[in-house]
Amino acid sequence: MGETLKTSAIVLRAHNYSEADQLLVLFTEKMGKLSAIVKGVKKPKSKLRGGVQVFSHTNMELFLGKNLATVTQAEPINTFAPLREDLFRMGCGAYLAELLDSLTPEGERDIDLYRLILSGFHLLSIEEPWLAVTAMKIRLLRQGGYQPQMEDCTDCGQGSLAEKFFSPELGGVICQHCLSKKTGPGIIKISGESCVIFKQLMNMELTKLNRLRISANAKRELDEILDLYITFCLGKKLKSKEFLDNLA
């Protein structure tokens, strides 16, 4: 016999499952990531449709079956409409949802991650999208245990580096001396500004991020190192990144 779960949840992804049903990937407050079917949601008179839109924050009732949960009730708290009204914000939201999905196993409660992605969707709805999505990439990596080393050389430990280079394989910056011993693709030079901005995006209060002033070069460097590092950590390139690249 299954059991019923009442929880708030964030809808990360939705896929067509049949003519009338959809399969959802949820990140729930009480059980972490779950897959759930929502039956009849594509029918015009479905009472569930409003609460299961992608990116929505919803109070849900789920029937937990042996292999798959079923959504039986869904009352929206916040649908984050701006993420569906602007193509770039929508792409950024899809990226964050896919990154969280890729970083987390099913059925493991993580209230900090739940609160973080909820804050991220709030931020992405109201702030400059690049700033919001970049801050969230960095914080999701940290929360998932993949925080890169951006100060001392990850190879020899030397601090106060005059020049820094980022190595996805080593998980952070390396010095000029260690660079001469390394081979392989993906190592790029990174400016001091980019390192400072990286730390600020990781540690500042989210409500104060709009105070930052970031050069075009630092934005380009941060995009490059985060793309390389996330791809290395996951062993794949996220599909939503290609969509964002096409919008640029």
What does this protein structure show overall?
It is a single chain. The chain is 39% helix and 23% strand. With 248 residues, the protein is of the alpha+beta class. The protein has two domains: 1-79, OB fold (Dihydrolipoamide Acetyltransferase, E2P), CATH 2.40.50.140; 125-247, Recombination protein O, C-terminal domain (de novo design (two linked rop proteins), Up-down Bundle). The strands form two sheets. It has a five-stranded mixed beta barrel. Strands 7-6-8 form a three-stranded antiparallel beta sheet. The radius of gyration is 20 Å and the shape is elongated.
Task: Provide a quick synopsis of the model.
With 248 residues, the chain is an alpha+beta fold.
Which properties best describe this structure?
single chain; 248 residues; alpha+beta; OB fold (Dihydrolipoamide Acetyltransferase, E2P); 2 domains; three-stranded antiparallel beta sheet
